[in-house]
Structure formats: structure tokens, C-alpha cells
Amino acid sequence: MTLGSHQTSIRKSQTHCTPRWIITRLGPFDLDPCAAHPRPWDCATANYIETDDGLRRRWHGRVWLNPPYDRYEVARWIRKLADHGQGTALLHARTEAEWFTPLWEAASSILFMADRIKFCRADGTEQPHNSGAPPILATFGAADAERLRQSGIPGSLVTQWSWRPARSADLFH
Asked: Could you tell me the pLDDT band of residue 11, with boundaries at 50, 70 and 90?
């Protein structure tokens, strides 16, 4: 369920329905390439479920990305959103993970959310426990960054202009 190396996602569901309040504050979205099935509500106008193989399909418009929380899969989804350049992803704040690198390289903004969230079940009720890790919202493209900035979602917002990725080798010279 989580992405950290000390927590496991093995043999646990990779389907985590996005809480409706997040979509209400950030939407509308044109495409959800990782839509839950079944799901209590649509997060976008077009929704690809697992059998549609959203990684292989063409993406369009503003993308909502709540990818499978498997540390071996999540990087491919993030890279595709980074290449697409327009959308928002809900992820865990695993800044040490290799899959986080495309966020530092290409995201327009990252909101380190103030509170952990509770994902929803297929019937729309909240899961009994929170997500198990601090969540972030990462945007790609100026319009999505502005939408996040204006959303009122509590947390600490950083933008591509407030961080400058440095290679670790550069830190010691």
C-alpha cells in the first residue's frame, strides 16, 4: 500500500480511490489513466481501468494520476505524466526513493499536504486508517500549479523556482 522501503505493498490492494474532496478542489480533469474499478465516482471525464492499460494508451488534456502504490510500478506512471506535462499526481512523500527523481526534475510544484488522507472504498466510504505515509500533490504545467496554489488544501507548497536539483557529486565540490 505504501511506497517506503520499510513498509510493504506486497499482497495488498493497489486500488486506492481518491477522496472526492481532492477532485472537487483540483478538478475538473480530462483523463484518469489509473481509475479504480469499481469506483464510487469518476475523477476525470475519461477513465482507464487496469485492463485498459493506461501506460500504453495515449494521454490527453489535464491528467489526474493516483497510480498503483507499488514502488516498482510508480516510476513509470510518474515519468509518463512528466513527459505529458499537464496534470496532477497524488503520491506519498518518499523523497529518498529513486522514483521521486522525475518529480524533482520536472514537476511545476509539490504540495506536502499537512495531514495524511484516508482513501475511499469502492462504495465511497473512507478506509478506516489513513494512507500510512505523508501525501503529496505534484503538478506538471503552469495551469495545474496555479490550480493547486488556489485550492486551499493545507500544507507546504514548493515550486520549481524554489528548489534547484543538484547532483550529489556537485554538493562536495
From this structure: very low
How far is it, in rounded angstroms, from Cα 124 to Cα 146? 28
**The domain spanning residue 103 has which CATH number?**
3.40.50
> Which residues are CB-neighbours of 47 under 8 A, at least 6 positions away?
31, 32, 35, 39
Within-domain flag for 15: no
The one-letter amino acid at 17 = C
Which residues constitute the domain of residue 79?
Answer: 20-152
The amino acid sitting at 158 is V
60 phi/psi in degrees, rounded to 5: -145, 150
φ and ψ at residue 77, rounded to 5 degrees:
-70, -45
- Structural domain total, the chain: 1
Phi, psi torsion values for 150, nearest 5 degrees: -90, 0
pTM: 0.85
